[in-house]
Amino acid sequence: MVLEASLTLILTFAVLLFLSIPIGICIAVASTATMLLMMPMDRALFITAQKMVSSLDTFALLAVPFFILSGEIMNNGGIATRLVNFAKLFSGKIPGSLTHTNIVGNMMFGAVSGSAIAASTSIGGVMVPMSEKEGYQRTFAAAANIASAPTGMLIPPTTAFIIYALVSGGTSIAALFMGGAVAGILWGLGCMVVAYIVAKRQNYAMAQPLSRQQAWQVCREALPSLLLIFIVVGGIVFGVFTAIEASAVAVLYTAFLSLVVYRSIRLIQLPAIMMSTVRMTGIIMFLLAASSAMSFAMAFSGLPGAISDIILGISDSQIMVLLIINIFLLIIGTFMDIGPAILIFTPILLPIATQLGVDPVHFGVVMIFNLSIGTITPPVGSGLFVGASVAQVRVESLIRPLLPFYLAIILVLLVVTYFPRLTLFLPQLFGV
Amino acid sequence: MHGLRTFLDRLIQLFCISLLGVMVAVALWQVASRYVFGSPSTLSEEFLRFALIWISIMGAAYVAGQSQHVSMSLFVDLMSLRGQLKWGMVIQMVFLLFAVSVLIMGGGHAVSISMTQISPVLQIPMGLIYSALPVSGVIIVLYSLINTFDLYRTYRVHEE
Amino acid sequence: NVSAQTTLRLAYASNSQPVKDALALFGKLVEEKTDGEVKVMYFPDSQLGGERELIELTQTGAVDITKVSGGLMESFSPVYGVFSMPYLFDNEQHFYQVMDDPKIMDGVYQSTKHLGFVGLTWYDSGQRSFYTKSKPIKTLDDLKGMKIRVMQSQTAIKMMELLGAAPVAMGQAEVYTSIQQGILDGAENNEFALTVARHAEVAKHYTMDTHTRIPDIVLISDSALAQLSDSERQAVFEAARESTEFEKQAWKTAIEQAQQESRDKFGVAFYDVDIAPFQQAVQPMYDELKANPALYDLYQQIRSVAQN
Ligand code: NA
Ligand code: NA
């Protein structure tokens, strides 16, 4: 049953995808078709419908429409330009400075919001158009944005590690957060190295050095916008509101700046801004909703059990098993959403790994690193699709510029996998 | 047809813009009520989750109407303009089938079994939450028909 | 002598080890008692979805057996709401006595029959108490104004309000960071929240007020029961009962370990508290219960077997 189900799922999906059917429909139809192997039609349709709704029934996802909305307001209200000008003061002389700004922005923003999608829409939504204006290739800018967006799922705080801690039977969350921070920063640095090399070869314009007076002007103009970062990050760090609530506060503050302080947006423009938020939310959520039906179809066919049999059957050397688990998780990550994947595969894979002497903290970091990569790879990658629609470029056109980034990220993954000291160093130092 | 599209667009815009506004307000209220009023709002969390479901699914229907859902266009790019228009009509029919089967039939089934299930906090039937599916299903059916009609008209124009 | 084999699909969400072990034992016993005629196929760890989804899947027959929290059951059948009432049980003994009494529980288990599933048995899910970050709760006054995470249920919210706390509704996954950052002063749960969910890393005071004992409920679909012969059905019910006996013991052992670990490894302090003022504070909830005859009747039955 596992084989028939997997083949049905993959083939149906691939054919529909090739026929240019919208990706969300491809996923939903392939999942329903797979379920039809195992149950009557009305039940399969019910389950697909149920999964679509219940996958959206997650409070954390509220950050998506809210951060998109604040991003839209920032773009329209000139806040984004001011922030970017400010960032260029520091990175202006480095080749690809705008791309580095985007990557660091994703790391910081992803860290506080915990959502790769929120990061890539709000930071990328600002940076990608801006980069094109300054002569960067749009697809390259979009690729860098997509590649660095998942770092926020590793840099704390992140719910992914909290879920992992719970299902792994009580791995230290503090230790996971520290290990994740190291892995996430390495991922971001990897992307910056790629961006540096590409930008240097493409001769992407460096910012003209500004006079002291001009620099002062930029700082002064950026000050109210910079306050946004202090309010959002400070509010979270000092426990005024949660990261998700912060997204609503960001909407309030950006609206206040644009409507009242800068007067760069008129009230009458708001409906259009909100509607483009709704449109982006509809695109993203439809993909997420459809993907959850796919998780069900795979689990119902008995795939998780089969995977553990295969891994145990192949080898019992730690290096080999970790490699196989990496490959498996990369594949799983391409089809499954990160939340369900953690819930389903931690209980299966962790015992195999610990038996071979792998530390549960280290394993958690490796696992979430893997699954995060899956969100930005074809065929099913919400991060990839979202990044493409934010940048308004076609998914296919992104594959080539993404390749060097994939390479760098996989290299970092191998380093993180085979040098456990990197992840375990900080937790051991702090004794957690 | 044009009138119907405008009507549907306006209806969804009105609904989604109001809902998004209310959602932002409620989320801010959730923060404020914890500090300013000393008695945190306990209804807002569930309301926001349910509102997110509705706005996402209505948003997805709106995007379907504008044919803006993400897809890989390699295959249609190989076709002539007329071929693309023809294939566009096929895709609209796939949307229609999806809406009728998954959203209307599957979603309708979900509504029917959950009308007696009461949400823990707001105490409303869960069927009301699931009904986002059949409602968006009907909207997508209408949009698919309008889009097909429009594609066909363009196709006829290019015939001459 | 050809006989058709039946496979029952058992799905559950993420769970503690005692529950997982008990469910595994249940399947083994079913198979033994039916000479392999009935087998149980497992979908553990939220593979098929969360508990609310699993109940709906049981309703439609995609899943045959599932295990969910009694608190969630209130959404499907109001009578289960009684189990979420604070200070309902005097102690663990009283709780066991009620849950093991078919005269009380059969009616509850059958109350979802019109939805296509019934209760099969119950599992111990322990007691829930308050735990806090910086200040221990030693009296009712200490709780006043404290921001405490509350489960998504009207009963739980009401209880919190009557006790004078400020109930904050949020998902379980956000509790850890919210306590850490000070958005919450504390939360309430059983001892596994300290160890397995690691909240002991951020909250060091656990006050044993044992406000609720909400059982887990194992559900079976009507369509699954209809597939079984009389003797097979008998075997399924027996296996369920025996798995409950096992789970009670396993739970007790595991929870004692969790307490020990909280003390020794995390330095959590446990406090006993005089609950009389707490009970008094929530009395209006019991007064309100009288308005609902079905719930009040169950409540009276539960109280009638109490020792004092
Ligand atoms: Na994060
Ligand atoms: Na992927």
UniProtKB/TrEMBL annotation, chain A:
KW Transport (keyword) present: yes
Family label: Belongs to the TRAP transporter large permease family.
Topological category with respect to the lipid bilayer: Multi-pass membrane protein
Organism, as annotated: Marinobacterium rhizophilum
Domain of life: Bacteria
Protein name, UniProt field: TRAP transporter large permease protein
One Pfam family it belongs to: DctM
Protein localization: Cell inner membrane
Record function comment: Part of the tripartite ATP-independent periplasmic (TRAP) transport system.
Residue spans crossing the bilayer: 6-38, 59-83, 103-128, 140-167, 173-198, 218-241, 247-265, 277-298, 310-331, 338-358, 364-386, 398-419
UniProtKB/TrEMBL annotation, chain B:
Protein name (Swiss-Prot/TrEMBL): TRAP transporter small permease protein
Reported function: Part of the tripartite ATP-independent periplasmic (TRAP) transport system.
Topology within the bilayer: Multi-pass membrane protein
Keywords recorded for this protein, A-Z: Cell inner membrane, Cell membrane, Membrane, Transmembrane, Transmembrane helix, Transport
Chief place of localization: membrane
Pfam families, alphabetized: DctQ
Membership in a protein family: Belongs to the TRAP transporter small permease family.
